[in-house]
Amino acid sequence: MAERRRRAGGAVVAGVVVCLGAAGCSGPGAAADDSPADAVRILHRAAETLVAAGSSKATTSMEMATGGTRVTIRGQGVYDFHGRLGRLTLRLPQDPTGAAEHPPITELLTPGALFMKNRGAGVPADKWIRVDTATVSDGNLVTGGATDPFAAAELLRGTRTARYLGRTDLAGTEVRHYRGTADLALAARGAAGGVRQSLAAAAKGFASAEVPFDVYLDDQGRIRKIRHRFSFVGGRNKAAVAVASTTLLYDFGVPATVTLPASRDIYAGKIAE
């Protein structure tokens, strides 16, 4: 079973790579001042602030570039930060004629596992595949074509350096902009169960454990936008792949019910590479 999950995770990664060919504020996010130490402290607790917020809608974008080719995968859905469960619908890139090459993929994000429906690669359309995120080399920060929003927040626990860049407007909400670098191994040590193993896998599998980021927090300390830049070696040619993953969070408190598939609905056969 573990071997099948590893093959499933590899198939997802391969599939994605192949398609390449200043004012004070209030609330828990407020800082006494804007020193680097304060910025690091604030970002270390960003995940806890999301759990307190309960849930939100999420929009994701993952840009991949290798060998002069660039593709973007976009997703939209909801996330329950209490239960660490999410549901996203991903739309893959169009072909050169403008036609969709693949129907939308439904993803269910859970602690330690990723479920995907309409995956293709020989999987029946009515079946799900399950990927153990601790067994894939990027810990599902890239594998599914979208970074798990809670994992994106937990990664900030590994912030080593950060600076406050000032206030700005984001879709009508005033936010505080921070820029810094996080360490995947450090983040893994402080992350919640499930996410911990995934981040530890990413720390070993990525080309670098250092992850640059930009993050925008509202006056309650909640992440409104976060952008990570990853680098890994993948695909059949083992080419370097640069990945920019962006997550937007909004409509906090929205209902976010996620129902996991029954065992009989999970595909047990071989998944094409």
Concise overview:
The chain is an alpha+beta fold and 273 residues long. The protein has helices at residues 2-18, 36-44, 46-53, 149-154, 184-190, 195-205; strands at 55-66, 69-80, 85-91, 105-110, 113-117, 128-132, 159-170, 173-183, 210-217, 223-234, 239-250. Helix content is 21%, strand content 37%.
Q: What portion of residues belong to β-strands? A: 35-45%
In the sheet with the most strands, the strands line up as: 6-5-4-3-2-1-11-10-9-8-7
Spans of at least 5 consecutive residues whose pLDDT stays below 50 are 1-33
Shape: globular
Q: How many helical elements?
A: 6
State the CATH topology: outer membrane lipoprotein receptor (LolB), chain A
Give the integer mean of the pLDDT values: 84
Helix and strand pattern: HHHEEEEEEHEEHHEEE
Helix content: 10-25%
Q: How many domains, as an integer?
A: 1
Distance between the termini: 17 Å
Gyration radius, in Å: 18 Å
Strand count, sense and barrel status of the largest sheet are: 11 strands, antiparallel
Q: Which structural class fits the helix and strand makeup? A: alpha+beta
Describe the structure.
The chain has an eleven-stranded antiparallel β-sheet. Helices cover 21% and strands 37% of the residues. A hairpin with a 4-residue loop joins strand 10 (223-234) and strand 11. The chain has a single domain (2-22, 34-265), classed as outer membrane lipoprotein receptor (LolB), chain A (Clam), CATH 2.50.20. With 273 residues, the chain is an alpha+beta fold. The two termini are 17 Å apart. It has helices at residues 2-18, 36-44, 46-53, 149-154, 184-190, 195-205; strands at 55-66, 69-80, 85-91, 105-110, 113-117, 128-132, 159-170, 173-183, 210-217, 223-234, 239-250.
